[in-house]
């Protein structure tokens, strides 16, 4: 491999489900640019999983190579500290010009961005689109069944002309940088976009691009909620979607897929800028999301912090390496984790990560020299009952009692088992979830891919359940902590 450092492009949509890509079998998806990448010069990882099903813990994990439990990055309010490893900071220290355009959910707000990037982009473009978290007339009456649905539908610009919200502004600004950059340092562009995070709303042409007749209906609500974590039942009762028809859920899902189609178009727009500037061949482009979304599955919307259905934990991961790495374009079925991201970037950029981390480079999968990567993937969430500081009650103070997120926040602040610690171990065929305060879960993903029947008590599966529980113990032993690479002196300095 050449010693030349590639440009690093990190295209990071929020809450993009792994099954929302056409090339992975979603009949209604409109993702031609991502589909084309894995047909020509990139690899799509069909079995990629996040390490926490909400934003901040997942981002802390994939930017460090640490699992959330390693240093307690388990909440939306415990971010990466100055002394902790962050890939963006490492790339900046190694000579990259780091440009960050989009949301945070990674570094403490009180610390600022200076250590991790050269530019934190604050767009000057006129925004004609909506902030659906702030402009909420679409919710309807507080006692209506749309109030907590996150469904906004088709959006129109506030004034004649193109629809420009902050995501579009960041993508356009990033493309301008790519086309005009004349610095000597290699580029690192980090685009942590908001879409397709709900509220579910999107402008034309993306809203109408989705053929509703091709949409797979969402998974129906559980027939038995009693063997599932109690947070799910509380969420189902609070979101008030019980009377929604299948057609309404399909329309919600169509809007979400329209949001994904918009993300694909923005990804294609950025690739076009790389080609126009002559930087495409010299760039490593990473496309992945931090976690997924219910999108109507089980009669739920949004996500939770301590449940691990595939719709929440399975994420897209598409990598186009620089041209000097002979990638075997296509789809990889190997089990991979987002925690593998820093190790992959480090190998491509010729950087040695000088700290203990748990990711494994995906380069051998990109080149086809290896076909398998991990025997299992892991995702974790929740808190101890006594960890009141992890309940995120602060969110209630910030967003107020009318927040879109109240159904979930009400469950998280309870002092029962609702927000209890849990961890998922998933193989290609089975899923085991260990729960600290509630019944464990076990699913046969071959016969029950929608994870509807909890078989934890099935006598025919007890040997396998014990085997997976032992594998979970080994995982915790391997990842329990990290020891600093810089040792301390055992003796006090001698007097001069």
- CATH homologous superfamily (4th level) name: Alkaline Phosphatase, subunit A
Shape: globular
Number of domains: 1
- Which consecutive residue ranges, at least 5 long each, have pLDDT under 50? none
**What fraction strand?**
5-15%
Helical proportion, percent range: 25-40%
- Number of DSSP strand runs: 15
Mean pLDDT: 96
Tell me the distance between the termini.
51 Å
> What's the helix count?
13
Helix and strand arrangement:
Layout: E1 7-12, H1 32-40, E2 43-49, H2 55-62, H3 87-93, E3 97-100, E4 119-120, E5 151-155, H4 166-180, E6 187-192, E7 200-203, H5 206-209, H6 230-239, H7 246-277, E8 283-288, H8 310-313, E9 314-315, E10 317-320, E11 330-337, H9 341-349, H10 363-367, E12 377-381, H11 394-399, H12 406-412, E13 422-426, E14 430-435, E15 441-444, H13 462-479
Parallel strand pairs: 1-6, 1-8, 2-11, 3-4, 3-6, 5-7
Antiparallel strand pairs: 2-9, 2-10, 8-10, 12-13, 13-14, 14-15
Helix pairs in contact: 4-7, 6-12
């Amino acid at each position: 491999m050449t010693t030349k450092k590639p440009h690093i492009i990190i295209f990071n949509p929020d809450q993009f489900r792994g099954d929302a890509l056409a090339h992975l079998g979603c009949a209604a998806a409109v993702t031609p640019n991502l589909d084309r990448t894995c047909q020509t010069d990139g690899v799509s990882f069909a079995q990629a999983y996040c390490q926490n099903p909400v934003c901040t813990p997942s981002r802390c994990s994939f930017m460090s190579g640490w699992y959330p439990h390693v240093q307690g990055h388990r909440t939306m309010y415990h971010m990466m500290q100055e002394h902790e490893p962050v890939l963006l900071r490492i790339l900046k220290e190694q000579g990259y010009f780091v440009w960050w355009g989009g949301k945070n959910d990674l570094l403490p707000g009180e610390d600022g961005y200076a250590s991790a990037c050269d530019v934190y982009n604050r767009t000057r473009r006129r925004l004609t689109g909506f902030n659906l978290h702030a402009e909420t007339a679409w919710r309807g009456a507080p006692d209506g069944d749309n109030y907590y649905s996150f469904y906004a539908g088709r959006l129109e610009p506030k004034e004649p002309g193109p629809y420009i919200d902050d995501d579009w502004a960041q993508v356009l600004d990033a493309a301008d940088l790519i086309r005009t950059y004349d610095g000597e340092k290699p580029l690192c562009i980090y685009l942590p976009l908001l879409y397709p995070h709900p509220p579910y709303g999107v402008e034309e042409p993306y809203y109408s691009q989705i053929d509703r007749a091709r949409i797979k209906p969402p998974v129906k609500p559980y027939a038995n909620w009693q063997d599932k974590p109690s947070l799910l039942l509380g969420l189902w009762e609070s979101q008030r979607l019980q009377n929604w028809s299948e057609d309404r859920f399909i329309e919600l899902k169509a809007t979400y897929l329209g949001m994904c189609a918009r993300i694909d178009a923005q990804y294609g727009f950025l690739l076009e800028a790389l080609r126009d500037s002559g930087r495409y061949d010299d760039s490593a482009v990473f496309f992945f999301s931090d976690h997924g979304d219910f999108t109507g599955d089980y009669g739920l919307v949004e996500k939770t912090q301590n449940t691990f259905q595939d719709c929440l934990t399975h994420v897209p991961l598409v990598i186009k390496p620089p041209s000097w790495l002979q990638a075997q374009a296509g789809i990889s079925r190997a089990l991979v984790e987002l925690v593998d991201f820093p190790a992959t970037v480090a190998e491509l950029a010729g950087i040695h990560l000088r700290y203990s981390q748990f990711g494994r480079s995906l380069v051998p999968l990109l080149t086809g020299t290896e076909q398998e990567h991990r025997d299992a993937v892991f995702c974790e969430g929740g808190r101890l009952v006594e960890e009141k500081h992890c309940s995120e009650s602060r969110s209630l103070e910030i967003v107020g009692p009318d927040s879109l997120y109240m159904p979930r926040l009400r469950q998280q602040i309870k002092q029962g088992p609702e927000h209890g610690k849990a961890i998922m171990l998933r193989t290609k065929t089975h899923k085991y979830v260990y729960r600290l305060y509630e019944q464990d879960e076990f699913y046969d993903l071959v016969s029950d891919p929608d994870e509807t029947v909890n078989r934890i008590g099935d006598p025919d599966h007890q040997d396998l359940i014990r085997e997976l529980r032992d594998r979970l113990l080994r995982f915790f032993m391997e990842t329990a902590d990290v020891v600093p690479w810089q040792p301390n002196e055992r003796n006090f300095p001698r007097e001069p």
